[in-house]
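#struct-pred
JK: can someone run the complex with iron/sulfur cluster? inputs below
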Amino acid sequence: MEKQEFINKVDQYLIDPENIKKQAAINAKLNRQVDLAKTFFDKYDLALQRSSYIKNKALENTDKLLANFEFDLNNTKIKVIWATDAANAMNEIAALSKSYALPVYFDDAQIIKELDKDAESAALNISKTADVKSNFIALTKADFLVADSSSIICLNHETKAKQIQGNAAVQIFVCGIDAVIQSYNDLELIAALQSTNKYGEPTHANISIYNGNKLNEDDALKEDLYVIILDNGRSQILADHEQRSVLNCIHCNACSRSCPVALFSGEKAYGTVYTGPYGALVSHHIENNSNLTHLAFASTLCSKCNDVCPMNINISAFLAYSRRNAVKNKCVSKTENLTIYFWKNAVMKRSNMDKGGAKVKGFMFKQMLRKAWGNKREMPTVAHKSFNQLWRERKDFGN
Ligand code: SF4
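RT: done, structure tokens with the ligand placed:
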């Protein structure tokens, strides 16, 4: 989605202030529940530090942990499929559907939407509604992969996803390469933080664990099970040492609920799978679309997202890095570059700044910033005396 399209959609959303009131009330209610759920932790701040440490360590060892996860699944009923991008994953799913001669039903988890962003599901006979009585393949998200025990973890609050998984003849799970963690000990803390910050509940209602290592025991998996480990631009983020810890995200949505821009623009304006501050950081990688870099500018950089993030991700700093990268990679317009160039030259020298009166400066601001400022707010007027002049007068420095 281009920048102008984003602005148009925000304008449409803002026409009805009821939208914002409704969303603000929903956010406030959930935030109150989240605050209450946080009291179940003895030391919430310590939990944040630990979770961030655990996930950072996992991120640094992603390759080893994923190799470990796959190695122990050899000779089990769980098969690992590596997918570099969404098209790759969709082809694998279509091939499985063909070989089992079964339809594929999927839920609307974000990672599944990642696969279907070009609406290829229709072409591949993959559908969204499941008739749980007939034979079918279930395509659902996996939340975490535990490397030590080669387990697939699904955390849900909705019974529908569990019902679909439970009735399927074949299961396909999808998760990103960033979903791998070391052990169950790590999972306990991270899952509790996710549930607390996503649903305002201290723990998930449904926790399903699929472990391929029980092939020869009585409780071995009866059905075939596949796990698609999806890259889809994540390795680009992982390669970026400055911003890689954004992959520590556990998709709790707390940053979106706290972000004033996300509140006033509405989810639909983003037009991307992931929205809010997290979406602004990762969408251009995940959707492989450099036109989405403008989303990093859709932020007030107020740092509220940092304050609420349970993984201690420095989101606002990463947004600032993304802006810098967008400028470096020439993803901003020439007019904007020129404006900033003249602005920089003007403010670097006191004699330049003092040129012209308040009226001339006001006129210049309006001309330069009119488009970016928009018509929803008044442009502030320039004070008659500059800070420098006031300072000199008050300190009696003379002119
Ligand atoms: S960036 Fe942090 S607050 Fe936002 S969804 Fe991810 S974990 Fe939650």
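RT: quick notes.
Strands lie at 78-83, 104-106, 126-127, 137-141, 144-146, 151-156, 170-176, 180-181, 206-211, 224-230.
Residues 158 and 206 are 8 Å apart (CA to CA).
JK: thanks, will look after standup
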